[in-house]
Predict the 3D structure of the following.
Amino acid sequence: MEIRVRNMCPVAVSKLDRLAKEKGLSRQAFLKEQIETLSIMKEVEKQEQAIDDLYDRTIEVMEKCSDAMTNMDRTFNKLLGEDEE
């Protein structure tokens, strides 16, 4: 599929050409890469947020498990008549 952009500011085009050259790409290849990246950014951001949320929930569950294990250890020590450390 083809996309055309008209009436670009010459300064902007020069900047794009410089950025493309720095990456070793043609203007067309550079713009294609940038547009494709832009088109998926929202989805990537959603996935990153979902991962962050999952990480936070995992930490919360691990903390609860740690607390429960500490309580069970104390209870077992009391049942066995052992001193707490």
Notes: The mean pLDDT is 93.
